Amino acid sequence: MRSIIKDGQITQDSWQVLRADEQGQYPQVAADVDVIVPLALWLADKSAWQGRVGKTAVWLAPDADPALLAADLPDLPLVAVDFPAFTDGRGYSLGRLLRERYSYAGELRALGDVWVDLLHYLWQVGFNAFEIKDGKDTDGALAGYDTFTERYQSTHREPVPLFRRRVTSQ
Amino acid sequence: MYRYDEVDHRIVRERVEQFRDQTQRFLSGALTEDEFRPLRLMNGLYVQRHAPMLRVAIPYGHLSSRQLRKLAHIARTYDRNYAHFTTRQNIQFNWPELARVPDILAELAEVEMHAIQTSGNCVRNTTTDAFAGVAQDELLDPRAYCEIIRQWSTLHPEFAFLPRKFKIAVSGSVEDRAATQVHDIGLHVVRNEAGEVGFKVIVGGGLGRTPIVGEVVKEFLPTRHLLTYLDAVLRVYNRFGRRDNKYKARIKILVKAMTVEGFAAKVEDEWLHLKDGPSTLRDVDVAHYASYFTDPAYEVLQSNPPELTEKLAAEPAFARWLERNTRPHKQAGYRSVVLSLKKTGVPPGDITAEQMDAAADWADRFGYGELRVAHEQNLILPDVRERDLYEVWQLAKSQGFATPNIGLLTDIICCPGGDFCSLANARSIPVAEAIQTCFEDLDYLFDLGEIDCNFSGCMNACGHHHIGNIGILGVDKNGEEWYQITLGGSQGSHTTIGKVIGPSFAQADVPLAFEKIMTVYLEQRTNGERFIETVRRIGLDPFKERVYAKHH
């Protein structure tokens, strides 16, 4: 169990993220744990993952094509996007695509190099769960939601951009 | 000009508080240097040779007298009494103390200014024609669109961490004075055959290590689609731009790799999903922003009043200044005055606090309290009555602003170079000064006519050397500073990348090489031919032969 942030609260979470080791090998997954598997593994043997006792979710690397997951989204309990470095901004576009293009409505979790300074943007593009990087303060990261009380753009959280709210329609 | 409402103020204030917190966490050790670096860069803070350097945004070069006075105050209070205008209409402070930067930002916020996204791998300050709104050759005023783009790009949640920096320039006049063809996105405000206003969209231009002239990806984009189309371009770039090599991470490399047709198709595909979405601009939205850029209450005046013509006839030096340092205005009886920041002996683009205060006073007294910053690193009083020009000239002289060299060889566009910048291979300021000294004779300088001379201290090309008619690039040869000369570059509507003439020169030999190049030009030019036209006509060989001739 570890602490994560979900929907603005700190909660205890038991999902395990399946990542390759240094040799590129994946460790064995016990049948009854809830596991987040990489997209390639999911696509390679979907029915096996779906038949497990534990729940299975999928994580996307920054260069993943979210269209490959589109058909499965309604049935997935969770989708995660990995941020191998916080300066790698591709995941923000993936978040928006999953929410806005593929209408994914379930839990969208940010993994990896995720900490307080990124939370606001991640929330705006559609993420609602955050596994804060080891060594960074999870409790303190909650403050990240409120860094900005307003923004200019159309986002997943506020689709109507500021310019439209400034000038009421005629 | 645009004025903040409560929300704009709040966003900037919240950014100041966020940065204050980030700075404190860095100083207390909670953020590592590697973590803090991208965060401070996207707020315009570099660590330089001597001290941090803070770059403050001047959105599309618009500045009020009140803002300029605040910049003067900051230069006096937090810095060494001066600042430096950049080639992207921003201003830099070279000596602030890191711990006091949040206080500087708080002071800037009071006058609706900030340092948001003046550096870092994000969308930078949107730039435009310094004469936007007053130029005689303007087709459409680009400023409302600049402000719309500024707001769209400010703290955009999806595009905070792009592969590399991203620069947008907008032009609305016949002559492109915003270097749109060497920007990541260049937009020309145009009217189509049906009379509709929209944009020609150019993508993938840029200088740096791989200078490329941008290509048109959309001939006509109706205004309402501006932001959804920009979102589509940025999303394609954000997802597919290279992140493995910073020298290949600009959008120009992606466009080349995909071909411009392939890139345009990919954007079109993305745009289909965004088009007509919530970010679509309505006429009322555009009108709202345009309402900030209406004309001031110009007086109805005759052109060429006697107060002007008499002084012009009596004082050739005034006539010379007027010819070089003022520009035609769309309103009869007015001109725009360029205050030259290219006086010999002063680093190009540098301005003292006293000069800022003086220019702010003149903007109030002779205009409507507004100034402009040109990407050529000069300051502009946009609306001066012709009958006041003589007095403005005298005042400009008293503050060292009146060197009559705008557009001439000594109006050098120049980065701060190795004296300040830790990226530079070579110093630029002393070499620029040596060139200015060499061409100080005004008769000679005027005879040479219009020549863009651009100088960069390294490959990053902040001084835009590739598009100078003469370009200089500082290079490092075994720890020594050398200078490579390019010829034939040009900015504007016919942007061209200059070509290197041959082996680089030692610092002391640069002015002599310039003299030889100018001698060839004077020998070869036909009647009225400008330097760049002669270079284009005769090619580089005659220049090479002279410059590299062996002494006997």
Give a verbal description of the structure.
The complex is a heterodimer of chains A (170) and B (552). With 170 residues, chain A is of the alpha/beta class. Chain A has helices at residues 39-44, 46-50, 90-101, 116-125, 138-141, 162-166, and strands at residues 2-6, 9-13, 16-17, 35-38, 56-60, 78-83, 107-112, 129-130. Chain A has an eight-stranded mixed sheet with strand order 2-1-8-7-6-5-4-3. The model of chain A has no long low-confidence stretch (mean pLDDT 96). Chain B has 552 residues and is of the alpha+beta class. Chain B contains 18 helices and 21 strands. In chain B, a hairpin with a 5-residue loop joins strand 11 (326-328) and strand 12 (334-339). Classes of the chains: A alpha/beta (170), B alpha+beta (552). The A-B interface holds A 86-90, 92-94, 96, 100-101, 117, 120-122, 124-125, 147-155, 159-164, 166-167, 169-170 and B 5, 7, 10-11, 14-15, 18, 22, 35, 38-39, 121, 148, 151-152, 154-162, 227, 235, 238-239, 243, 273, 277-279, 281-282, 284-285, 287-289.
Question: How are the secondary structure elements laid out?
Answer:
The complex is a heterodimer of chains A (170) and B (552).
Chain A: E1 2-6, E2 9-13, E3 16-17, E4 35-38, H1 39-44, H2 46-50, E5 56-60, E6 78-83, H3 90-101, E7 107-112, H4 116-125, E8 129-130, H5 138-141, H6 162-166
Parallel strand pairs in A: 3-4, 4-5, 5-6, 6-7, 7-8
Antiparallel strand pairs in A: 1-2, 1-8
Chain B: H1 6-27, H2 33-41, E1 45-47, E2 52-56, E3 62-64, H3 65-78, E4 82-85, E5 91-93, H4 101-110, E6 127-128, H5 143-153, E7 168-171, E8 185-191, E9 197-203, E10 215-222, H6 226-240, H7 251-258, H8 260-274, H9 283-290, H10 306-314, H11 316-325, E11 326-328, E12 334-339, E13 350-352, H12 353-366, E14 370-373, E15 379-385, H13 389-398, E16 413-414, H14 429-438, H15 442-448, E17 453-456, E18 470-477, E19 480-487, E20 499-500, E21 505-506, H16 510-524, H17 531-538, H18 541-547
Parallel strand pairs in B: 6-7, 7-8, 16-17, 17-18
Antiparallel strand pairs in B: 1-2, 2-5, 3-14, 4-5, 4-13, 8-9, 9-10, 11-12, 12-15, 14-15, 18-19, 19-20, 19-21
